[in-house]
Records
---
Amino acid sequence: MNAPAVEAVEAGHRYGDFWALRGCTLSLPSGSVTAVVGPNGAGKTTLLNLLVGLLPASEGRLRVMGDQPSSRPEFLAQVGFVAQDCPLYREFSVADLLRFGRAMNPRWDDALARQRLAAAEVPLDRRAGRLSGGQRAQVALALALAKRPQVLLLDEPLAALDPLARREFLKTLMNSASEAGITVVLSSHLIGELARVCDHLVVIRDGQVRLVGELDQLLAEHRWVAGPPEDTARMPSGVEVLSTSSHERHNTLLVRSQGPLLNPALTVSPVDLEELVLAYLERPAPHLSPPLGTHEGARP
Amino acid sequence: MLNFRIETTSGLAPYVQVVQQVKQALRLGWLQPGDKLPTVHEVASTVAINPNTVQKAYRELELEGLVVGRPGQGTFVARSLSQSTPEALTALGRRLERWIAAARAAGLDDDGIMDVVRATMRNLRTEASA
C-alpha cells in the first residue's frame, strides 16, 4: 500500500438544493479493500457514482488512480463498476455478455472471465434473466474483473444474496484482490461479513462521512468500558466518550483513545465492527449543517 | 492445510485471529518447524478473507520469529511453540477438573466459571503491567 488509489477532498454532490453527499474527505491506499457503510439513502451510491464519473462533483476534488473521474475512455479503462442489483441485459446469454464486453474493452481478458464463471458454475448458454441472484452477481463481477481494472467499485453487491452465495461472491472477490492487487471499494448496509474482507471503513449518514480509517486501527482505538459511576464519570484526558448508558450501579461507555485505560475499577472489552458502526450512526452529526433545503438558497 | 476460521463478532481483529490460530496450531503441535503455511492467495480465496489481513498476520508472526517468508516459495514455520510435555498438560488438566468441580459445587455455571477465569487472568495481567 503506497500512493492513495482513491482520494476525496471536501467532495460533494447536490441534487437541486439537496446535498446527497457533502464535505467528503477520504484517502484509500492502493491495494486496500474498503467498506462504505450506512443506512439506505445515506449517500453511499452517490459516493460510488462520483468515483466512477457517473455524477459530477458539485464541490471539492476527487481522484481515482490520480485521475479526475470522467467518462473519458482512458479513465474508465482503469475502473470496474458493479452497480446495485447487478444490472445485466436480461435477453443476452452469458456468452453474449462476454462477447459484448470483449468488443467494448481493449484490455478485455476473456480467459479470466471464462475461468471465473466456470469456477462459479455459471452456465454460459443461460440467459441473464434466468440466472439466480448469486449467479447474476458472479457474472457482473466476472465482467467487471475482465476489464482488468485497477480500482473496482461495487454498490451493495451482497444485498440480494443468500448467505452461501454471499460467501462464494466474497471468495471470488478476495481471490482477485489478492491476485491482481486491485483496490476495492464496496458499499453495504449489511455489516456482518465486512469485517473479514475489508481493511478500511467509511461510515456515512445523511450525506456526511461520520468515520473513516483503517479498520484494525479503528477497532483498537475503540473500547467498551464498564464500571461504577464515580470511575466512569472522570475519564483521563485524550479519551473521547462516544456513548454512555447508565444503569443502577454501573455505567457502560463506548470510548475512543489511543493509549490503554489503566483504572482497575473499569472492565474494558473490545468493540466489534457492528457495534462500532452503529455507535457512529446513532451519534448526532458532529457539525450539523443547516436543515436541508431551507438555508441553502441564501448562501452566496 | 491449516483451516482458518474468522469470527466477525468476537471483537478481535481478523488478523489477530489468524495470528492466534497459527500460534494455537504451533502450541498443540499441529504445525512443526519446516511446515509451509497456506499462501496469502490460498487463504483469501478459500476463507473469503482480505489478503492484506493474512499478509499482516504473517508479517506479525515473522516479526515474532515464529515463521519465515522465503521469496517465491512461501511462508514456513521457523520454530515450535509447544510449551509443555503431554504429561504436564494432563496433570494440569486434572487439577483444573478438581477446581471446576469445586466451582460447580459453589453454584457457578459455565459462564460464571469463565467470568472468574477471565477476571482473574485480567487482574494478574494488570498487576504485571502496573
---
Amino acid sequence: MKNISRYNLIFVTIIALSVILPWMFWLSFEKPISSPYVMYSCVDDCFMIRGYENGTSVYSNEFGKTFTREEFEQKLPLLNFRQLMISKTLPDTIKGVEMDPHLVNSAGSFYRYKPEDKNSPKPGLYPMIESKSGRAKLEMPKDFFRIASRMEFIIADGNKLDEQKSVLFTEALQAKGFKFPAKMIEGLPTTRKSCDEGYFVVDNADQLFQVKMVQGQPYVKWIDIPKGLTFKYISCVDFRNKLYYCYLIGHDNSIFIITQDDYELERLPIEGFNSENQELRISSDLFNYNVIMLGENFTKVVALDDNRRKVAEYNQTWTKRALRPEGKAFSFLFPAEINLTDKYNSFINFYFHPTKGFNWLILHIILLISQFIIIRRRKANPKNHVVDFGIVLITGLFGFLAVNIFPNKFFD
Amino acid sequence: MLKSMIYKEWLKIRWFLIGAAVAGLLVIAYMYMNTQRSITFGGASSVWYNIMFLNRMFYKILKYIPLLIGLGIGVAQYFPETVNKRIKLTFHLPILENKALLMMLGFGTASLLATYLLHFVVFWLLSSSYFGYEITNAALITITPWFLAGLAAYFFVALIVLEPIWMYRIFYSFAAIAFVPLYLNSGMAGAYAPINIQLVLLTLLISVSMLFSAYRFRKGEM
Amino acid sequence: MNNVIECNNLTHYYGTKLVYENLNIHVKEGSILGLLGKNGAGKTTTINILNGFLQPRSGECLIYGENTQKLTPHTKGRIGFLIEGHIQYAFMDIHQIEKFYSGFYPNWNNKPYWDLMSKLKVTPSQKISTMSCGQRSQVALGLILAQDPDLLILDDFSMGLDPGYRRLFIDYLRAYAKSENKTIFTTSHIISDMERLIDDVLIMDYNRVLAQCPVKEFMQDFKQFNFTLDKDNIDLSKEKFVSNIEKVKNDVELYTYESEDFVKKFLDDNGVETKNFKKVKMNLEDAFIGLTGKY
C-alpha cells in the first residue's frame, strides 16, 4: 500500500510540476511576438504592412518599399479617415467615389473570430427579442428559450414554463420540418444592435433555419444549404450595410456568409483556413474585404473586391516561439508542458504539449546520473530504485523532483 | 473496533464538522438572498442574462469554502495524533496499522463527503428553483472541482501532518501548493466540464497518501 | 519457561553514531525486568524497537515469538504499553477514553479502572489534558489494568510523578504482576522505585550492556569499597578488576565485582597502603552510579 501511495503521489506531483514549472519559465522569459498588421490599399491596389523591428513600427508595402507613418496612413484612407480629415490629406474621391463620411462609415465592418469562441460552453437558454415591436429601441424579453425535445420558453421570474408560447413556436418549427433537438443555436443575444434577426439554428438533421419573433408570432425560415454540408460554427453580425446575416464555418473550414433577404449561402474564396488554431479577422470598407488569417507563426491575408471575389493574397511567416531563443532553452529543460487553459479553447482541460525534438534528453541523462549518485550516497541498493530511475529518465526534471520529494526509503 | 475508531475520530472533529456544515449552509443562504435581492431590484430576466451572457457567477463566494473545510477537518483530525506522537497509541491497538489508518481516513472522508453533499444538494435545489436547468448544470459543473479541491486538501493535510521529518513536510507542502490550484482555475461557468472526471480520478489517487508518511513514522524516520 | 521478550544481536545507529551493538535481551514469562541507563544510553530506542516504532540497523526482537516489526493484532492485544510521559488521547475525558479502548479488547474488564478512577478527584467530563501528571498516570495505569495484558511495557512510568503516586503505581503493579503471572519490561530514571519493583536488571551505558542479571545477584556481586590512600602512587582506574573508581584527593571509592580479599591482596601486592578501608552497603541507585559513573 505504501508503494502504491508513493507512486500515486509521484504521478500527481509530476502532473502538477508539468503545469507549474513551464508556467514559471514562460512567466520569466516569454517575449512578445508581434504579428504584422496587413491591410489592402485601395489607393495602390497592393498590401500595406505595419511590422515591428527592434520595438519600433516599420511601415512598408508587400514589395518592400518603406513609408513614413503619414504616407502609410494615406495609403489606407478609409481606415484612417478621421486622421486624414484632421491633417487635411484626405482626397475628395477615390476610384471615382466621393469621400462622404456617412457612406464610408456604413460600408465599414469588422469581424473577429477566435477558436475559443467556438470551443466554449454554450448557455443553452437564449432571449428571443421581439424584432418588430414598433419601438425605437429593442427590448430584452422576460423569458428565455431552449430547443431541446421541443422549443420551450421559460419565464425568468418564477422559473415558469410558458406552455402556450412553447407550443406555438414548436409547431411553427415542426411545420418547416425541424428535427429536434437543436445542435447549434447562434444569434446576437443583446439589445445593442440595429435590429433583431433572431437566431440561426441547426437542427438534429443538420438543416439550417432562421427563427425570429415578429409581433409575438414565430417566423421560421428554412435555408437551402448543399447536401452534406455541416457547420462548425455560426457567428451572427450586425453591420450597418446589412449585406449579410452571419459568417458560417463549414466542417471543412470553408467560410460562408448568408446574404440578407434572399438567404443565399455564399462561400468566400478563402483557402487554407483552419478554424481550430487560427484567428480570423474580416474587415470591410467601401471597396474591399480584408480577410486575415492568423496562425502561430504566419499570417495569410486575402483581399476581396466588393463582390467578394478574390483580388490578391499575401503571406508572411515568422519564427515560432518554440524556435526562438527562449523556446530553444525550454526544449532543453522540459520534455513537455501541460496547460489547463488553451488559447484555442475556453474549456479547462489538461492540454498536453510535447516538446519537439529530443534536446531535453541531455538534461534527463544528467538527472539520471545525479539520482544514481544520490542513491549510492545513501548506501542504498540501486536495484530497488529501478522504477525511480525510469521515471527520471522519461520525465526529467519533473520526475527527479517528484521521486526526491517522496523518498524511496523503505525497509523490508 | 470500527465503532471505537469512529468514536475517537468523531470526538476530534465533531465541533468543527458541525460548524463547517452550518457555515457552508449560511454562505449558500447568503448567496441566494443576494440573488433574490438582485431579482427583486433588477428583474429576474436581467439576472439570468448576466449569468449566461456576462459570466456573472452568483456563487463565486463559495469557491474557497470547501477547501477551507477540507483543510480544517484534516488539521482537526490529524494534528491531535502528532502531538507527543500520540498516534503510537493507535498503532499499538490490536489491529493492523494500515487498517486503523484507513478507518481514520475513511471516517474523515465520509464526514467531509457528507458535508459537501449537503451543501451541493442545497445549492442544487435552490438553484433549480430560481433558474433553468442550463444555468444550474453549468453552476454544478463549476463548483464540483471546488469540492474536489477540499478533498484533495484533506488528503494532503493527512499526508503532511503525519510525516515525521520537517524538511519533508515542507516538500510535501510544495507538492500540495503545486497541485491543489489545478482545481481552482478561473474560467467561464461550465468550463471545467471536460476535466472533472480526470480530477475525480486524480483525487482518488492521492486519497491513500497518508499511508506513505504514516509508514515512515512507524519505521522510525524520526 | 519461554522468553516473552527476546532480542538477538540488536545493533542500532542514529546516523553514524552507535547506540549499541549486539545487544541481547531475554525476559522470561512472569519476570519483571528493569532497564537502567543514563539519558542517551538507548533506553527509549529499545522501547521503540520493542513496540515496532523503530527498525534496528541489524538484529531482531521477538515478542511471543513474533518479530516486533510485524506484530500481529492478536499479540498486540496481549501487550500493555505505557508511553513516556503517560501520553494519552488527552482530548478525551475518563469516560470517553474507557469507552474508546474497551472496543478493542475482548477481555476488557473495567472494574479495576473505575476503582482507580473513584480515587481520582476529577469531574466526570474533565478532559485528561487538564489533569495533573499524577492523575494522568492513574488513568494510564487504570487503562492497562482494564486491558489485562500478559506483557506490560512501561517507558519511564515514574516521570513527573510525586512520591505518593510513584509508590501507588509500584505497589499496584507488583501486586498485580505477581498475582497474575504477568511479565513487565520497564525503564525508569528513579532507581529507588525500580528497586522496589523489578526482579531482573539490565544496565546500559553508551554503546554497551554493563550488567544483565537478577537484581539480588547484582547487589550481591557488585561491591563498593572506600579507603584513603597514604600516597597517591597508583592509577587504579586502568586495572581490569576495577569497574569504576572515584577519587577526590586521596579518598577513593572503588567499585568492583571482586571480593574484599581480592582487593586487599591486590593493594598489598602493589605496595599500596590504605587507611579506613571499608565495604560500603549500596542500594540499587548507588550501585548504578557506581557502575556507570557520575557525569
